[in-house]
Write a structure and sequence with these properties.
The complex is a heterodimer of chains A (425) and B (299). By secondary structure, chain A is of the alpha/beta class. Chain A is built from 19 helices and 14 strands. Chain B has one domain: MetI-like (MetI-like fold, Orthogonal Bundle), CATH 1.10.3720. Chain B is 73% helix and 1% strand. The chains are: A alpha/beta (425), B mainly alpha (299).
Chain lengths: 425, 299
Amino acid sequence: MSIRKVFAFSVAALGLSAAYPAVSQAETINIFCSSSGIELQLCKEGSEAWGKETGNEVKITTMPANWDDVLSLYQQLLSAQSTDVDVMILDGVWVGPLKSHLLDLAEAMPAGTVDKYFPSAVAAGTVGGKFVAMPWYMDTGLLFYRKDLLDKYGAKVPETWADLTTTAQLVQDGERKAGNDKMWGYVWQGRAYEGLVCNATEWFASSDAGTFIDAEGKITIASPQAKEMLKTAAGWVGTISPEGVLNYDEEGSRGVFQNGDAVFMRNWAYAWSLANGADSAIKDKVGVAPLPKGVNGQHVGIDGAAYLGVSKYSAHPKEAAALVAYLAGEKEEKRRALAGSYIPSISSLFSDADILKAIPFLTSAKAAFENVVTRPTSITGSDYPRVSTEISNNLHSGLSDPSATDAAIDDLASKLDGLKSRGGW
Amino acid sequence: MMAETAPQSSWVKRIEPWLLLAPMLIVLATVTAWPLARTAYLSFMHASLDDGDLPRFIGFGNYLALMKDGDWWHAVRNTAFFAVISVTLETLAGVAIALLIDSQIKGRGALRAVMLIPWAIPTVVSAQMWQWMLHDQYGVVNALLIKLGFISHGIAWTAGAGTAMAAIIAVDVWQTTPFMVLLILAGLQIIPRDLYEAAKVDGAPGWAQFFYITLPLLWPTLAVAILFRLLDAVRMFDLAYVLSSKSRETATISIYARQQLVDFQDVGYGSAVAMLVFLMISLVAAVYIQVTKIRLISE
């Protein structure tokens, strides 16, 4: 194409795009969807359905695959007051750092909308009296197990971490003897990233060792219970968990479990529909239970709810809020629950017969949803990324070297103390 | 000559070179000098993107904190280890392969083309590819080693502190050796062939030919090639980031700088880290050029 042609073409294109809004009267809403798989598909279908219903245009941008990288991208876009983003998917831990850039959704929603959602989730989406994050789906850490293998070895679903260790070892040894060389007992997320922080918060909170930092900002991690629990977890690596677990994220562990090569897996709810998909090696062989508890502890799951937010700098805040209301509405949440096992954030949908059939663990793993623990985000505020990095790095060192677990906890405590005095929380 | 004979006014003569240089100077000023000056300025500030406050001058505060920052020194050690080992291996492999291709073996044209493939693949893509090949359960590397009987169970290459760094170095060597080969080959081909013939007539053995003819004449090229690789290695980011995330055990100084700047939104401290990365790279280059006495610009 000659330069002149390119120029003529761009002028024509500019003319077209300038004329476009006047012709169709539609607004273009930019939404960030997850990067791949069923998450992207559901987000795309939902947004486009809204677009068709309301006559607006929806432009979908995919988020970075690694959610650790998403917050900083949002922060850059929002601190530049970009109008390229209207609707964002938010992790619960980002609501604090992003609060000053998010629109108050309460005014944009029809009266009474908010009351339909779980009060705890609405509370987590409300900062300083402003309702900035709409609960979209609930999620928590769950124990996935192989029903067929537990039956075969006459084992029960583990109640405690010690039970899990013994059962995993028993089944793993048996299966390996029977010729399945690749069998492992337990896969989880041990890579040095946010996922390890989630796993570890569950270990400690279920063992009466708190959540690293309490609500008053006191560092609570250096307890004998926490040291004991980390020692147990470090003992899994190389025995019931492959050494590679130290570099697994959610998808890495799901790969092993869904190939039929692990007895237990810790993962989020999304793994349910994939494990029961047509191409899964373990279709209909999977059960879901709350994660085990420690000595003197209780079953817990980490708060992994996802939210939707609207940028304060959006050029079309009204339409953006309408899209949020649609995506988090009954119809769309039910569709997502049936197609992708995304757990609704609207409380009445928990008694919907179709949904209970599609996600049976809403009943079997009820305890996990009842005792939800949160990471120390609200107290640490914008220091949370630093806190999270210290936690994942120090625990990763401890898990890599079972003789250094106590030292890893002490190091972590002193690092968190340093961050506390620096950040003044 | 022309200028002396042509009757041109002297200010045109003086201004002409600057006019011709202007586009390049403007580009350099905007893409290099300005960002560098801005980073240096911010490194003396307490500045954060998320709190919305204006930057506040704190003198050498960021640098002093950095000197006491254990994670930073860990990253410096990681980077130095990576740079020294990977560049050494690449140089040795590069010389060996270049000598092989330089000799008159059959099919060397095809060999040269094939060899360049790893270098042509973007680093992030090859890192991702190696991550699968090195996977502890389903990776081809472990499958091969198990089949050959070297190991009984898959090794988690990218998970352990020791093996993760080794894996990163191995992938880097795989990827950038072709670059070394290419430069070294160019150096080999300018060595006059009659020197070798004379050596043969004198009865010098192969090793003597290599140490007394090839190496001294190759040195200027080799030194420049090593400098390029060394500077690249010191600022390495992508391989470690993809293969083992931000794990402290493998984080390089570039990963550390990005973490401060992007993840923590700490522009002040992050800029101080970035300035130190810049100073370290300059220092490596300066010392290296001084020691090897290579001339990048002919006088």
